[in-house]
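Pipeline run #58 for the internal structure catalog. This entry was flagged by the ingest filter as a single-chain record with no existing model, so it goes straight to prediction. Upstream metadata was stripped on purpose; only the residue string is passed forward. Reviewer on rotation: M.T. Logging verbosity set to normal.
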Amino acid sequence: MKKICSIDALQLLDFIPDDNSNKICYNCLMENQNLKIRKLNEKDFLSFKILFEDLDEYHHLALPHLFKKAGMPFRTLEHFLLLLNSEDSIFFAGEVDNQIVGIIQLAKKEIKGSSPIQIPRTVLLIDNLIIKKDYRRTGVGKNLVTKACEWAKLNSISTLELAVFEFNENAIHFYEELGFQTMNRRMNLNL
């Protein structure tokens, strides 16, 4: 198992899996196209909206009892600007030929713990990682996670955490390949 950065990774996250179609060669992408990782800005709203609507639809189809149907008007410009301007929210975009092909949404979190034996800590949480279908398995996601690790180190954060739904096996595999390990499992019982 290969680690992409030296900080500890504890949990796993939401990631839209590849359906094994339209794969692009990672080496071709890196050699022939410029992958640029940059901070998201106000001008990126349309790309944000499109990518997050794909993620919303994916979650709705997999877990309709938990997620509303995509297309609801909650991915508004106002919502985007609120997230973008939050002190604890960080967004990076993966861009190829001036087109956003992936977004990582991060949140700085203070964990105090619910028990007196837990040690308080600051973590960087990966809230979402979304890659356009044609760019999955090309290195965009790995580069965005690497950027998250770099940002965490620069901000004296030693832990990167994320969560993933059990149905999302491709995401679990992706994160395990990067060195993430499962720390705990949250379970429920529908009554």
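catalog note: The two ends are 39 Å apart (CA to CA).
catalog note: The first helix runs from residue 26 to 32.
status: ready for reviewer M.T.
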